[in-house]
């Protein structure tokens, strides 16, 4: 059988009053139609909900079990208009967001803090991923937005929009004690150490910016290891496996045996931004982007 909200409202009112006359008054109706509606409801359920006598009305065990569920369903139904309004306004729902590792040490923590404060009812689903993986996830509709390192591939640029969030220089990540002092370091002044670098497939702009630093210094680096996680790169430096060039914000990641130094001379800027599908109609995504633009 199908139970409608009207039947539940009639039942709950009688259950709360335990008096058909008072329940009818609360419902702004006369008693006979209410009694008939309850009787029909009981017949449809196949069990009595009330024990009736001339002196009193009481709930049966079945009625007692139904009452809290009836309240829950009616409360949920009453909240539907507000739920729909909040979803349409981007104040409730789900936002799937991916991010590259450097974002975790720069824009991501304050962004999540501000967004959660502004939209506390939105469920955030977070996933760390490289830019190439994020682009595919965006195109396939698996995520709503991604914090990526540009540029976007040509095949995706027609379907995706992009907003710059941060530009920062590259800095040296070195094993402790490789150089003396605390000032900027010229690459040409460093001992020859293997380079630990991000794979070009995952972030071509970052990879090329790093190699351009060595090219400008007249050095052909020996690539010792490739790693897609900044934590892994820094850990390999800590283990004495080589040196790395990383976005400045990664210097917030401290490891024993590692020090960060500014580059002498020109240091290229690495960009980080947010990317999303141009055809998305998600109100939650719209609210997220509006917050980013304000900041």
Number of helices: 11
Low-confidence stretches: none
Percent helix range: 40-55%
Q: What is Rg?
A: 32 Å
Gross morphology is: elongated
Order of helices and strands: HHHEEHEHHEHEHEEHEHEEEH
Please name the fourth-level CATH homologous superfamily of the largest domain.
Answer: Periplasmic binding protein-like II
Assign the CATH topology of the largest domain: D-Maltodextrin-Binding Protein, domain 2
Determine the strand fraction and express it as a percent band.
15-25%
Mean pLDDT metric: 91
Helix/strand/pairing category: alpha/beta
Describe the biggest sheet? Answer: 7 strands, mixed
What's the CATH first level of the largest domain? Alpha Beta
Instruction: Please tally the β strands and state the result.
Output: 11
As for the number of domains, it is: 3
Q: Report the end-to-end length measured between terminal Cα atoms.
A: 53 Å
CATH architectural label of the largest domain: 3-Layer(aba) Sandwich
Task: Please name the defining characteristics of this protein.
295 residues, Arc Repressor Mutant, subunit A, D-Maltodextrin-Binding Protein, domain 2, 3 domains
How would you portray this structure in words?
The chain is of the alpha/beta class. It folds into 3 domains: 5-88, Winged helix-like DNA-binding domain superfamily/Winged helix DNA-binding domain (Arc Repressor Mutant, subunit A); 93-165 and 272-294, D-Maltodextrin-Binding Protein, domain 2; 168-270, D-Maltodextrin-Binding Protein, domain 2 (3-Layer(aba) Sandwich), CATH 3.40.190. Helix content is 42%, strand content 22%. It is built from 11 helices and 11 strands. The strands form 3 sheets. Strands 3, 4, 5, 6, 9, 10 and 11 form a 7-stranded mixed β-sheet that branches. Strands 1-2 form a two-stranded antiparallel sheet. A hairpin with a 4-residue loop joins strand 1 and strand 2. Helix 1 (5-17) crosses helix 2 and helix 1 crosses helix 4 (61-88). The model has no long low-confidence stretch (mean pLDDT 91).
């Amino acid at each position: 059988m199908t139970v409608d909200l009207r039947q539940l409202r009639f039942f709950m009112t009688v259950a709360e009053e335990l008096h058909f006359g008072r329940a009818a008054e609360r419902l702004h109706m006369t008693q006979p139609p209410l009694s008939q509606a309850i009787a029909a409801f009981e017949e449809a359920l196949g069990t009595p909900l009330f024990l009736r006598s001339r002196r009193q009305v009481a709930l049966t065990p079945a009625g007692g079990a139904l009452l809290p569920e009836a309240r829950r369903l009616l409360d949920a139904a009453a909240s539907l208009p507000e739920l729909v309004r909040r979803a349409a306004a981007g104040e409730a729902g789900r936002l799937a967001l991916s991010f590259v590792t450097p974002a975790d040490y720069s824009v991501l923590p304050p962004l999540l803090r501000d967004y959660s404060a502004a939209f506390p009812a939105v469920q955030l689903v977070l996933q760390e991923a490289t830019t190439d993986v994020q682009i595919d996830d965006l195109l396939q509709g698996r995520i709503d937005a991604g914090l990526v390192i540009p540029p976007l591939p040509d095949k995706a640029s027609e379907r995706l929009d992009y907003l710059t969030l941060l530009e920062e220089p590259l800095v040296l990540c070195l094993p402790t004690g490789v150089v003396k002092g605390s000032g900027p370091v010229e690459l040409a002044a460093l001992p020859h150490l293997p380079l630990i670098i991000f794979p070009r497939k995952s972030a071509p702009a970052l990879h090329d910016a790093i190699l351009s630093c060595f090219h400008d210094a007249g050095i052909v680096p020996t690539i010792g290891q490739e790693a897609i996680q900044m934590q892994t790169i820094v850990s390999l430096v800590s283990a004495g496996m080589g040196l790395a060039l990383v976005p400045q914000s990664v210097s917030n990641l401290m490891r024993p045996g590692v020090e960060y130094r500014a580059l002498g001379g020109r240091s290229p800027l690495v960009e980080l931004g947010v990317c999303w599908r141009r055809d998305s109609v998600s109100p939650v995504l719209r609210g997220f982007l509006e917050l980013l633009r304000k900041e």
